[in-house]
Batch of 4 targets.
Target 1
Amino acid sequence: MIKTVLHPVSDLAKAKAVYAALLGAEPQSDSSYYVGFDIEGQHIGLVPGGGPQGMTSPVAYWHVPDIEAKLAELTAAGATVQEAAHDVGGGRLVATVTDPDGNVLGLLQDR
C-alpha cells in the first residue's frame, strides 16, 4: 500500500506554504531538511534539493513488512536497486528500486 509520497523541492519555505494550502493543514514535521504532512493516513513529505538520494521527481513509497525480502523479490523480477535499504531514523528503513523503464519505486518498512 502506498502511504508515503516524497516530493523534491527547491525552496522549502515556498513549497511548505503551497502544500499547507493544498492540504488544509500545517505540517506535523518541520525542519530544515524535511517537512512532513500527515493527512488521513497519507504522508506527504517535502525534501529540499531531493535530499541525499538526489530525487528529481516525486517518489511513492510502498509500505512493506520486510524490506529485504521485497528487495530480493523485486530484483528477481527485473528491478534494479537504486538505493539499498538503510535506516533514516526511528527504526524506519527505506530503499528505492527502478523498474525496467527507469521509474523509481520506493519501499518503506517501520520496525
Target 2
Amino acid sequence: MKKAFLHITSALILGSALTACVNTVEQNTPLRSTGDMGVIIERATGQVQIVNHTNKTVLSEVDGLGDLSHASIVYSRDQRYAYVFGRDGGLTKIDILKDKIDNRVIQSGNSIGGAISQDGKLVAVSNYTPGGVKVFDSETLETVAVIDSTILKGKPLNKDGSQVRSKVVGLVDAPNNRFIFSLFDSHEIWVADFSGREAGEEMKLTKFTDIGYFPYDALISPDGRYYIAGLFGEDGMALLDLWHIEKGVTRILSDYGKGDKKLPVYKMPHLEGWAMAGDYAFMPAVGQHKVLVVNTKTWQQVAEIPAHSQPIFVMAQPDNRQIWVNFAYPDNNTIQVFNTETFELVNTLTPGPAVLHMEFTPRGEHVWMSVRDSNEIHVYDTKTQALIKTMPSKSPSGIFFTNRAHQIGL
C-alpha cells in the first residue's frame, strides 16, 4: 500500500513538473499565425522581411538569399514555408515561423520565377541558363524532374560545351498538378502534366509550337482556365484554353503591342499584374499612356482608359471595385486608381520614387506598396486612398502575402 502511494505521489509530482515546464515554454514562446503574414523582397541586400499585415509590423529579417534582383515567391499549402526564386538560380525555402532558411539549393545559372503544384508537393523553377524547367520535391528540395527546353540550332556552344537552349518564361501552376510555361527563343508553349504522379505515372509533356514570336511573359486566369502569353517580337497575344487543350493555341488581340509607330518602351508590362474583374480584363498598354479594357468572353478590346504614363502593373482590389496602376521610369513615383465600372479616375497618388509593386491584404482593406528608392513600404487605405503607415525596408521590390498559397497562378 505504501509503495502504491509513493508511485502515485511521484507521478503527481512528475506530472506537475512537466506541466510547469510546458507552461513556461508556452509563456516564453509567442505564438504566431501564418494567415496574416507575408514576405517582402529586399533586392539590393539579398534579404527578405517577414511581416504581419494585420498589425502592419516587420517581424524579422532573413539574409543569405543571393541575387534577388528579379525574385518572386510562392507558399506551401499550410502557409508556413516561402519558396524564393532568385535570379542567380537559387531556390530557397524559408520557415516564416522560425525566421530562418530551412533549405537552399542552387539549381541553375540564371532563373526567372517559379510555381508550386496544386497539391503543394512540387515546386517548379523556370530557367534562362541553361534553359528549361526543374521540378523539386517541396519537402526536401530534391530533384523530381528536369525538363530541357528546345535546343537552338546554329548557336555557339556554351562554355561547358553544352548546346544552347531556349530561355523559359511565364511559368505558372494550373489545376490537376500541371505547370504551363513559354519558351522565349523557340516560340513555344509547353504543358507539363504531373497529375498521375501519385499513381506512379510518368510526367506527360504537351508542346505547342509557332505560337508567336518571343513570348516574354504570361499569366493564367484566376479560375485556371486561360493561359495567355504576351509576345515581344510582334503585336498580339497567344491564348491556350486549358478546358479545351485539344484546340491548341489561338491568337488574340492582334493590335496589342508597340504597333506601327514602334513607341519607346521603358519597361515591358508584367502580365501577372493584369486585373481581371467581372467580364473585363484591364491590361497595361505597351509603351502607351493607357490601360486597355478587354472583354474576357470574346477577347476583344472594348475600351481604353487614359493614364498618367506607361503602365507596368494593373491590379484589382479583391472586391474588383477599383484598379491600381503603377508606371515605368521616369514616372514611377505615381499611382493611379480607377473605377472598374465607369473607368473614371478615382485618385492620383505620389508615394515616392520607384514604386515597384503592390499587394492587397486578403479582403482588400489595405494595399502595401514598395517604394524602392526611398527604402520604404507604404500602406494605404483602399477606401480613402489615404496613407496610414510607412515602414523602413532596404530597396524593397516584391511583396507577397500568404493568402497566395490558396490562389491559382500565384
Target 3
Amino acid sequence: MITHEEILNIANLAKLSVSSEELDELTKDMSEIIGFADTINAASADASDFDNINNLSNVFREDVVVPSCDREEILKNAKNRDDGYFLVKKRM
C-alpha cells in the first residue's frame, strides 16, 4: 500500500502539484498499479522456461549480405570532397 506522503514525494520529484482532492484518487490508482505489477510478476516468475520457444526467422525475405559500393562510386557526383568524404562548406 502506498501512502499519501509517497505520492506527494513522487509528485514533487515530477514537479507536479497535487490537490487534496486528487491525493486519495492518486493513492488508490498507484496502489492498484503496483498490485497489478505484483500480480504479473508472480504469474511470470517461472516463465523463463518458455522464453524463445519458437524458432524465429524472417519468413518474408532471406538476409543476403551484399558488398557495399566502392567509395569512389559513392563520391562520383559529390561537388566537393576531401580525403574520401563529402565536404560540406560552412555557411557564414
Target 4
Amino acid sequence: MQDFGAAFAEAFSLIVGFDAALAEIIGLSLRVTFSAVAIACVIGLPLGALLAVGRFPGRMVLVVLVSALMGLPPVVVGLAVYLLLSSAGPLGVLQLLYTPTAMIIAQTILVTPIVAALTRQVIEDLNSEYDELLRSLGTSRIGTVATLLWDARYSLLTAALAGLGRALAEVGAVMIVGGNINHVTRVMTTAIALETSKGELALALGLGIILVCLSILINAGLMGLRRTAEQMAYA
C-alpha cells in the first residue's frame, strides 16, 4: 500500500510540475487523436448524411457495412495499415510506418464508421421531419444534406464525441503502426501499457489521471454546449 501511495504521490507531482516527458506524450496524443477525429468527421458526416437521405442501389448494403465496421477490431486495422505501409506494401515508398501519420491513418479508419453510422441515424430522423418541406422548396440532394447537417450540428457533436472517445482509448492499432517509439510515437495509452508492464506506476498513473480528466472535460463541454443550444432553440 505504501508503494501505491508513493506512486500516486509521484504521479500528482508529475502532473502539477508538468513534467516534460508527460507533456510530450500528452501533446502527441492530442495531436494524433484530434487530427484523426477531424479527418473522420470530414469523411463520416457527409457519408452518413448521404446514406440517410440518398436512394440508390446498394444503399442498405452500405448501411449494414458501416454499422458493422463500428465494431472493427483495432488490431485488425493496425495489421491492415501495417501491411499497406510496410516496405513491402503498396504504400511503403511513402515511409510512413512508425510515424504519427500512420497512427492518424489507423485511428481515422477506426473512427470514421462510428461517425458515419451515428450521423446517418441523426440525419435520417431529422429528414423524416423536414422531407416534405425541403421537397416543396425544390432543394437538391446535396442541398438537403448540407441543410440537415447544419440543422443537426449540435446533435452531431455526439457522433464526434463518440469518435473522440474511441480514438483517445485506442491502444492496439497505434501500437502496431506506431511502434511506441519514445519521443516519436509514444502516446498516452501505449505509454500506460509500457510503464505498467515495467512496474513504473507513477508515469502510468499520471497519464491515466490525465486521460480520465480529458474524458470528463469533453463530456462536460458537450453537455454545456447542447444545453445552450436547447435554450437558444426555445428562446
